[in-house]
Amino acid sequence: MNETSLYARLGGYDAIAAVANDLLPRLQADPQLARFWQHRGDDGVRRERQLLIDFLCASAGGPLYYTGRDMKLTHRGMRISESDWSAFLTHLRATLEAFQVPAAERDEVIAFVQSTKADIVEA
């Protein structure tokens, strides 16, 4: 059986980058989540966006190699709560719907993101 990777089914690098480029401003504009980007310079935000794109591409079976830290180390000490996580998922779902990602792929993305929750949510 030759199953096409999630990376390919999502449309590859450009499509995943477009999703990240839509998602991050949504998160930054959310009154609950904006605190995570306070006091961050433009360069730091650009680097974070690129790491997110690389992480998503690599995790979806794409040809990119993620060079960032693991999720637990990256998010340690940020005090991300269940409520923060829920708000993030709301924005992620909205972004995926805005890009008309098919339900099967959308569910697969959400399932993957949910698999990282234990390493991200602290409080």
Automatic annotation (TrEMBL):
PROSITE patterns according to UniProt: GLOBIN_FAM_2
Pfam families: Bac_globin (PF01152)
GO biological process terms on file: oxygen transport
Keyword entries, A-Z: Heme, Iron, Metal-binding, Transport
Lineage: superkingdom: Bacteria
Required cofactor(s): heme
Residues where heme binds: H75
Protein name: Hemoglobin
